[in-house]
Amino acid sequence: MSKKELLLGNFAVARGAYEAGATVATAYPGTPSTEITEYIARYDEINSEWSTNEKVALEVAIGSSIAGSRSIVSMKHVGLNVAADPFMTVTYTGVNSGLVIAVADDPSMHSSQNEQDTRYFGMAGKCPVLEPSNSQECKDYTKMAFEISEKFDTPVILRLTTRISHSQSIVSLENRITDEEIISRPYDKNPDKYISAPANARKRRVIIEERLDKLQEFANNPKNNLINVEYNDKAIGIITSGASYQYAKEVCPNASFFKLGMVYPLPKEAITEFVNTCDKVYVIEELEPIFEKEIKSWGLNVIGKEIFPTIGELSPEIIRNCLKEAGELNSESLVTYDVQEDLPVRPPVLCPGCHHRGPFYILKKLKLNVSGDIGCYTLGGVPPLSAIDTTICMGASIGMAHGFEMAKGKEFAKKSVAVIGDSTFWHSGVTGLIDIVYNKGNSTVIVLDNSITAMTGHQENPSTGKTLKGDIAPQIDFVALGKAIGIKRVVEVDAYDLEKLEEVIKTEVNAEEPSLIITKRPCILIKGIKFEYKDLQVNSEKCNGCKLCLRIGCPAISFNNETKKAEINKSLCVGCGLCVDVCKRSAIELMEKKD
Amino acid sequence: MNILIAAVGGQGAVLASKVLGKLAQNIGKDVKVSEVHGMSQRGGSVVAHVKFGDKIYSPVVERGSADIVLAFELLEGARYVDYLKEDGILISNTQKINPMPVIIGAVDYPEDITQKMAEKNINTKFVNAMDLAKESGNIKTVNTVLIGLLAKNSPISKDEWVKAIKETVPERFLDVNLKAFEMGYNLN
Ligand code: SF4
Ligand code: SF4
Questions:
Q1: pLDDT band at residue A303, thresholds of 50, 70 and 90?
Q2: Residue A595 clears pLDDT 50, i.e. is over it
Q3: How far is the CA of A515 from the centre of ligand 1 (A)?
Q4: What gap in Å lies between CA B59 and CA B34, rounded to an integer?
Q5: Which of residues 104-123 of B touch A (CB under 8 A)?
Q6: Which of A166, A334, A337 sits opposite B36 (nearest CB)?
Q7: Could you tell me which residue ranges the Pyruvate/ketoisovalerate oxidoreductase catalytic domain spans (chain B) (predicted)?
Q8: Cα(A34)–Cα(A165) distance, integer angstroms
Q9: Average pLDDT, stretch A432-460?
Q10: Distance linking the first and last C-alpha atoms of chain B
Q11: How would residue A185 be classed by pLDDT, with cut points 50, 70 and 90?
């Protein structure tokens, strides 16, 4: 079978795992890595799950690898921070069946809180890192990663970036392997290897260094397809990998190229030969100067971050300009049209009808200090809602609210709340909440429960009532959980009921003990959700143009500058009715319901 | 052929890029499509890059090199018009969707976009795709109306376009989409 398909990089990784005979896949969703596991879930042969966080996801995958199944775990770059603890040790214990850790970096932070280069983690953990540069390689390298993992007894990181994960190119599909000995190995009961206690770990420490040497040797051999050397014009040589390879190739089609497939450890001999063969060598890598520093440390002369930026995504344009400035290219600049400089920006916003709007509207109104968290509701931090003061990382809101109190005392705590989504709460909020109870804090924590992981595109989680595979699952009960960990004040409120919300929040922040408020309403975008749509209209007689309704920041309400009245855009409005309560003059009215 | 699709999250830019990807594959070209997911889907500004030809390296279109900028919203067209090459064409919906800073009155929606484009002699084709989409029976077909107009301005045969749409759009929406495509195709 050699069917060709246009595939997203992430889908190609999933396909690679399938063809390689993987039987276990775990993940916590995170842009740009999410689709890997979503796609894998479609294969009946692969047991897959959304884990509560990346640390758990990796631990499950380590378990299944030791038990004898090829396993893949996927996450975004910041997810690897969460999973760092098991990661740094599984590189010591090694694996039984192949273990692949797919990590998607997000240069330029298209949807992330920071920019970090996962190759550093590979180095820190002394773990090999492969980096594909198109969808075909996403598939091929995933398969190779399983083989390398087994051959060298190590987990392997498959490093992706947004541009590789989220671009589509042509991939030829093959069949899944049928070799039962590969698909299911016997359980490797080997305590000396898998109990990473000091005496064992010290022995493994030595083995790791030997393994790195062997990996380097392996990468040096062109037969193993981890390097791709093309000699053209030898005046300029370019050492690169991943998306940067594609950009550089477009800008300098005639240069000589050394493309790395394994980006850690580096094939020293082969690179040395390349550098010695070319007159001048540029290292083009996105983000950190990792290749560059190592190559320079071997005493070789290459040019890198002297001319290329360390911040953000590269592009053909950036590479072209940098090389031009360095006097290497003298092609003419492209003509570009510019219509107007200061066009209004169009930031993402909470969807019309999103239930997070209610709590944020009230928090702003009450002028509270709000420590926020990561998810759709982070969008509550921008105008007009502007209801969030801080966002650090998944789960941080709760601990930070406690920190506010540690710093400023009880009275300050009465003006502060933490907000966190349901998925994020399961991810790493629950431990913070236990910390507050245990350490006798008084914080108020609001869980915005929309029963889904919405930001990344609606993945199931422990409050959904369904698993990744669509099976019915227990829905974990916030109220019972709150009580069980010792919170006496647990209240559930309808997120659309502004009056009740305001009353509850006021009471709970004033209570001198911890409170847990759960605002409930499923995300309006969940398929098959029952929702009573209202047909609303602004009564222009009653509307006096006060613009109060605009403060809830619903994209469906706008102000008509000619009539000086508010307007509801019917193609966007979902009829949640929230704006009705906000208007002081009852100008937003319910129309006769058309079906 | 380099095409840049500029849209507002939720307008169907991803589906449009899929149609183009399928089309390129069907006519035997190498093709790369790139888009950024995540935040941008919540009504933010989104852009998809489609490139096809004999051999494609970079999945992103370079500024000043797009043959076509296909804008689903007027302001987004202006935002990405700098991707257009000198003799490229901007095909744009005239529909306006106010971004949040405009909604809350922090800034105004620029009124003179089309005029400024004319001043710069940009080759433009404007269409009220929203009205045509309504007429086709589903307001969500704005993207297909615009694909119709794009098809008319491309060297690729109409049959190929129709085939790509048939292979991409889900069965139950196919009829309205084909109708919307025709409407776009039959404009001037
Ligand atoms: S996806 Fe759901 S939770 Fe996210 S902004 Fe939209 S309605 Fe709100
Ligand atoms: S009812 Fe009001 S708040 Fe809700 S979606 Fe419509 S305009 Fe927005």
A1: very high
A2: no
A3: 25
A4: 6
A5: 104-110, 113, 116-117, 120, 122
A6: A166
A7: 9-186
A8: 9
A9: 96
A10: 22
A11: very high
Which token pair is A171? 């991939």
Distance from CA of B139 to the nearest CA of A (A): 8
pTM over 0.90: yes
Going from the Cα of A352 to the center of ligand 2, the distance in angstroms, rounded, reads 6
For chain A, the straight-line distance linking the first and the last C-alpha, in angstroms and rounded, comes to 50
Specify the pLDDT at position A426: 97
Handedness of CA A66, A69, A70, A73 (dihedral sign): negative
Verify whether the Cβ–Cβ distance A247 to B57 is below 8 Å: yes
- Mutate which of A34, A424, A450 for ligand 1? The one with the most ligand atoms within 8 Å of its CB, which is A450
* Ligand 2 geometric centre to CA of B73 (Å): 22
When pLDDT is cut at 50, 70 and 90, the band that residue A397 belongs to is very high
- Give the span between the Cα atoms of A363 and A502, in whole angstroms: 8
Amino acid, single-letter form, for residue A376: C
* Closest chain B residue by Cα to residue A348: B44
Determine the 3-state secondary structure of A294 from DSSP.
helix
For residue A567, what is the DSSP state? E
Q: Phi/psi at A74 (nearest 5 deg)?
A: -125, 145
User: What average pLDDT does the segment B101-110 reach?
Assistant: 89
Task: Give the number of residues written for chain B.
Answer: 188
Backbone torsions φ then ψ of A381, nearest 5 degrees: -85, -15
3-state secondary structure at position A185: coil
Q: Give the Cβ contact number of residue A5 at 10 Å.
A: 14
Does residue A577's CB lie within 6 angstroms of at least one atom of ligand 2? yes
Please judge whether A111 and B117 are an interchain contact, meaning their C-beta atoms are less than 8 angstroms apart.
Answer: no
Arithmetic mean of pLDDT, A518-529: 87
How does pLDDT run across B148-172, given as a tens digit for each residue?
999 999 999 999 999 999 999 999 9
The tally of CA atoms less than 13 A away on the side-chain side of residue A156 is: 30
Span B2-185 CATH architecture: 3-Layer(aba) Sandwich (3.40)
A166 to B65: CB separation less than 8 angstroms, yes or no: no
CB atoms closer than 10 angstroms to residue A176: 15
Nearest of A552, A553, A500, A515 to residue A417 by alpha carbon: A515
Measured between CB atoms, which of B57, B84, B139 is closest to A246? B57
